[in-house]
Amino acid sequence: MNVVSPDAMTPAARRLVDPFQRAVTYLRVSVTDRCDFRCVYCMSENMTFLPKKDLLTLEELDRVCSAFVDLGVRKLRITGGEPLVRRNIMWLFKALSRHLGSGALDELTVTTNGSQLARFASELVDCGVKRVNVSIDTLDADKFKAITRWGSLDKVMEGIDTALAAGLSLKLNAVALKGVNEDEFDTLIKFCHDRGMDLTLIETMPLGEIDGDRTDQYLPLSQVREDLSQRWSLEDIDYNTGGPARYVRIGETGGRLGFITPMTHNFCESCNRVRLTCTGTLYMCLGQEDAADLRAPLRASESNEPLTAAIQEAISRKPKGHDFIIDRTTKRPSVGRHMSVTGG
Ligand code: SAM
Ligand code: SF4
Predict the structure, then answer these.
(1) Separation of alpha carbons 160 and 184, rounded Å
(2) Which of 80, 290, 291, 293 has the most CB atoms at less than 10 Å from its CB?
(3) Residues 33-62: tens digit of each pLDDT
């Protein structure tokens, strides 16, 4: 393969553009597959996690992320598993914050279950993090326990309060679950909008084997939207955070509500992102199995040239889109890996 030194590239050649002319400007990085929760739609209770030796070190994660930034990525989201349970994770945030300082990166952000936010909120602010996504599906402590199996709602609430007090902008993400939290969306809207937070509802995606049956949990957001519009005035707005959510403004609260609908609405045509796992595997699409190994080229040389070439080659294979299905006959997920591997 022809390897071009990154320094020798013109600015245009440094950009990552896929075969469908989509510029890849957003990298999501799963820094661990481990988690202190066991959400029913995400993991089974007894998960086998990757051996620690397979993980990229924090220094290696910094190198890969920085190579992407050199290639024009403007937004990094740190996710997991639960990113804030990885040991010494603040080192990575601090290291990556240099790209905010240099202007190479627009945004460094994180998706978390909130369990460690009380501990880390102010350090995240110090690292230049401005917005944080917190996943919370219910405000009912018993239901919260039932959904997360191991989580404590009080601890997450404390994290939310601390993060808001530290000046972080929060967006809450809730997975819409039939028969579980579908009666709570009004409460969640009020809770978020009273505190100046956006709320995004997400459809369950068929990723990875779990203990239960996803065909029972799946709640189409088109139906949720229809129901909400009986009580709230929803106005479509052009707001875009670089993610796949479509937003409405709720007249009564003035706040924003987003819908992420991978199952009912294909958002692939504007996809600008790729996902890196904690072992250095790059997935070009959340809904496809094709992947590229970046760990070998990363470790092959102290120079970033093999890594840069591997990234460019991977982007040249980014597929046009995905077609998720929940197979009602076999109940098998359409993609075998768990969301905690690719980080949502
Ligand atoms: N642990 C962190 C958290 O919960 O925010 C970050 C990783 S988690 C995998 C990222 C997001 O994916 C969460 O909002 C979670 O609710 C969502 N998620 C996990 N499994 C999902 C599934 N099968 N379908 C839809 N969303 C899922
Ligand atoms: Fe953990 Fe997040 Fe998956 Fe829940 S959704 S089990 S918090 S990784």
Answers:
(1) 19
(2) 80
(3) 999 999 998 899 999 999 988 999 999 999
